[in-house]
Fold Accessory regulator AgrB.
Amino acid sequence: MLDIMSAKLATGIKNIVPEHPASYAVLKFAIEVVLNVVFIMGLTLAVSLLTGRTGEAIQILISFALLRQVSGGAHLKSGTACVLFTTTLFTLLSFIEVSPLFILLMNGISLIVVLWLAPIGIERQTRIPRTHWPKLRIIAALLVTANIFIASPAIAASFMAQSISLIVARKEVKTLR
């Protein structure tokens, strides 16, 4: 679905502005990324309005995106699969209510995983030179550490899910070698 939409939009742009310096492939990819984010946010917020968990959904959308930007993680094969999986995941995470001790445990596990693996799987998605990747790990660790003080169950669950994504990405990177 996203692939078809981004292809039609990229074709339209190239037809209207054929001298645009971006290639069709670059336009299509950029449009697919934007559509992916828009659909994840839109669907997650729409479902959260129906479930009454909008505050939690917003926390999850923001915290997951921030941590993912600096830590990397696994990717699904298609944009549509990503939208469906992520929207379902975020909706389920918005219902997590745990004790302060369990929040601390999730934050601790997430912190260990982030310090161990971040950043991973960002080679083809960032312009940040490898020399600065250790700084990304520090930023990721600081984000997780912040929730030790915030103590949000939604953020802890979001960080835990993103940490699991790092473990999955590690397995993907190993199989590519």
